[in-house]
Design goal:
The structure is a single chain. The chain has 168 residues and is mainly α. The chain has one domain. The chain is built from 6 helices and no strands. The longest helix has 34 residues. It is elongated. The two termini are 18 Å apart.
């Protein structure tokens, strides 16, 4: 592991820890509001059921904090995927890393679009039917890409640990 790797890992930890703080802040701001129910409401009826009794200012604040969180988690998964790609023995697993890293950035873009759609619904910018479908599609794509990147980064960490001296 050279000096470039050390700096790379240091940046990843900084961004990753910031993502955890932003994620915790987003969760705390939600004050128990089940944001996933709004992300996957798909219809105005289900969204209205999820929003029933909710403090709309808290819902808006949660979505706004998610804009910070999405930049950080997408960056952490991007950096982590690039780092992991250099830890695999398999050529195929190493070569797929940059594509998975781009997928992590796409997850952030999908999350951004999802958040705008949810804000649009919560703020009454339209009747919501199209906005809620957009939010649901974007959330589905986002979670798929986040899952792939997360598994790849964890697998890279396991591969790196297995290759350390003293391990077989």
């Amino acid at each position: 592991m050279g000096p470039e790797d050390n700096r790379f890992v240091r940046y990843w930890w900084i961004v990753g820890l910031a993502a955890l703080v932003a994620g915790a802040t987003t969760t705390a701001t939600a004050a128990g509001f089940p944001i996933l129910e709004l992300e996957f409401a798909w219809t105005a009826q289900r969204a209205d059921e999820a929003l029933a009794g909710a403090d709309l200012d808290a819902v808006r604040a949660t979505i706004l904090w998610d804009f910070v969180f999405l930049v950080l988690y997408a960056s952490a998964l991007y950096l982590g995927s690039l780092w992991a790609s250099s830890r695999f023995v398999s050529d195929w697993l190493s070569k797929v890393g940059p594509y998975i890293a781009v997928g992590a950035l796409l997850a952030g873009i999908f999350d951004f679009i999802e958040n705008v759609a949810m804000l649009g619904y919560v703020n009454g910018w339209s009747d919501g039917s199209v906005l809620l479908v957009v939010a649901g599609v974007m959330a589905t794509l986002k979670f798929l890409l986040v899952f792939v990147a997360f598994v790849y980064v964890v697998s890279g960490a396991v591969a790196a640990a297995a290759r350390r001296p003293g391990h077989t």
